[in-house]
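yo

u said u wanted the structure for the complex thing, so here. seqs first:
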Amino acid sequence: MELTHGELLRYSRHIQLSEVGTTGQELLKKASVLVVGAGGLGCPALQYLTAAGVGRIGIIDYDRVDETNLQRQVLYGSSSLGAYKAVAAQARLQDLNPLSTIEAYPEKLTARRAVELFDKYDLIVDGSDNFETRYVVNDAAVISGKPFVYGAIYRFQGQVSVFNYRGGPTYRCLYPSPPPEGSVPNCAEVGVLGVLAGIIGTQQANEALKIILGLEGVLSGTVLIYDSRSTETTRLAIRRKEDAAARAQEGLALARKAVKEQRSESPAAACSSAGEDDFEIDPPQLEELLASGQIQMIDIRGPEEEPRLEELQGLHLPMEMILEQPESLSDVKQPVLYCTSGTRSRFVVQLLRDNHHMQHVRHLRGGIGAWLRHRAAAGEIR
Amino acid sequence: MNITVRYFGMVQELLSLDREPLAVDPDTSVKTLRGRLESRYPALSGIDFAVAVNQELAAEDTTLPAGAEVALLPPFAGG
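structre next:
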């Protein structure tokens, strides 16, 4: 695949590097990369991979751009609000480098479709924000024999590694199975320093480029942990477990089955949903309840978490405390638990209902985020 | 014997601590240390984390050498 004069010019700063040269640039042109998730990690990774001249880039993300993304998801602007991320990113990247082919998949990466999709690309970059997708990425990559560049962030810290590279370890060799749902908070729940996503996503792009260029030092067999506060980097060695391939097969089969069961259960679930969902309160409903003065708001976030909203003021009982002493809520009339995004409060309410027969406990669906969105929208109408 | 324990991610937040020295019995395994930390810090029970000993991911039956640096690394969700 020969480079044109235009390409020789555009990529001249790469080509000047003896480690890249025209041969390396041709490898980039021939290469194809699928980026899963066009969020905090996906945006910077996509930006550098596209600028670098990777020939074909796929973006899979079913989410749409909202205000809370703009603090770190640098491919989007105010004009992208409401658009599918995959589609908005495609437009921006196509402008960044018209010589690359950018493919957008505004859909969820399902266990059913992942292997088929991965087969079309040389390399996967995982910038997903939930464990369900992370395990699908791992399992499908192992099954289709593709290396994948892993990145994940938590507040001020990030992890980076290259998995399934030339028989190297996989994500399941680090974490054999997903943590219980709701037990590990995501960015929406605990926040994240925007630039950390930039640093980790850019590291992922760096690893992807090294793999394509056949350079030494690919971060396989090592998990790198970066802390943006101390600027400290820790490297932990990790080995492939013998059952890595078997676990991937088993994991993907289970994920496919789970989707099937969800589908076949859905008609029954629809019938009982009126009763089942009683413990969830939407922002408009909450507004009415607050006016009635009949409910007791309970903030279950940590003592330092912000923002604190005057209209939601009430008791402050951090989640850990409630889990240790559930009976502390027995005598509270009409308690409504809330947190940042509704993940933790739903987890706690379900636990209290299922294990402690506390059917009077409810929570704010979507948490403070949904409340702010509701109020902001109401404010704009007025 | 003495070891150092380092905490990452959510564990660091829960304990408000990024590292601490700890005295343990000789022949302490990763599993024993896990149990000990969980009883010292009840917030840790129910939380998944990988354990590394001297910068290498370690199995539950790994015995801690004197002076070991142990790292508790919970999974990160964000992306």
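The radius of gyration of chain A is 23 Å. Chain A has 15 helices and 13 strands.
cya
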